[in-house]
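Late entry, evening session. Most of the bench is empty. Finally got around to the prediction I had been postponing all week. Sequence below, unchanged from the version circulated by S.P.
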Amino acid sequence: MIQPAMASSTAGGRPQIGVLISGRGSNLQALIDAIARGELRARIAVVISNRPGAPGLVRAEAGGIETVVLDHRTFSSRDAFDRAIAMALLDRGVRLVCLAGFMRLVGTPLLDAFPNAILNIHPSLLPAFPGLDAIGQAIAARVTITGVTVHLVDETLDGGPIVAQEAVPVLPSDTEETLAARIHAVEHRLLPAVVRALLAARTAV
């Protein structure tokens, strides 16, 4: 049985966080930058990608952060994949997990190892437009408002308790590219702020 993460996992007084990615890692970069500016008192202990060659791995390596590739295609089951991720995080004393463009559903072994300690960021005002291509969904639906959601993760698709949301207007002239640029700007500000607030609240308990 995988033992849950302990709340006291720190390095040099800084809580250890782990980041899971599948792609370019722009939200990972936002966390790296917030730590470098002193706005987020934490340490990224490891960045794990399920895709070899993900551009976000280069961002992590440039920041001196350990990287691990766990290709989901090489595992016999979803649970085996999730157990491997959980062990990699626990072995490095991770206390909070951030999904930053991680394109896999999280299963029971990982959720049990990090109860109420896995955050996801999604480019819509959930429960609207869950799943893939949320920005394209918003454009196609001709809504006038979309946004960004940070939520705790459960076993459902983009479900779990919402921690923070911020609205982003959809302009009549918007394309997916122009709307994505404004949404990403909000993501890059909101995720570090939520991580900072959540860590502070847990430290105070």
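Two things to note before I forget:
The chain is about 35% helix and 20% strand.
The longest helix spans residues 176-204.
Will write this up properly tomorrow.
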